[in-house]
Amino acid sequence: MQSVEHISINGEWVTPQGTERFDLFNPATGDVTGQVRLANEADALNAIAAAKAAFPAWSQTRVGERVAALTRMREALAACEEELLQAIVQEYGAPAARAVWMARYPVAVIDQVISDLQQFVFTSQVGHARVEMTPLGVAGLITPWNSNAGFICGKLAAALAAGCTAVIKPSEMSAWQTQVVTRALHQAELPPGVFNIVTGRGEVVGEVMSRHPDIAKISFTGSTMTGKAILRNAADTFKRVTLELGGKSPILILDDADPATAVPLAIQAGFINSGQACIAGTRILVPNSRKAEYEAALAQAVASVKSGDPHDPANDIGPMVSEKQWQRVQSYIRLGQQEGARVLAGGEGRPENSGQGWFVRPTLFTDVENTMRIAREEIFGPVLSVIGYQDDAHAVAIANDTDYGLSALVLGRDVERAQQVAAQIHAGRVQVNTLAHEAGAPFGGFKHSGIGREMGRWGLAAFMEPKTLVM
Question: What is the pTM of this model?
Answer without folding.
Answer: 0.97
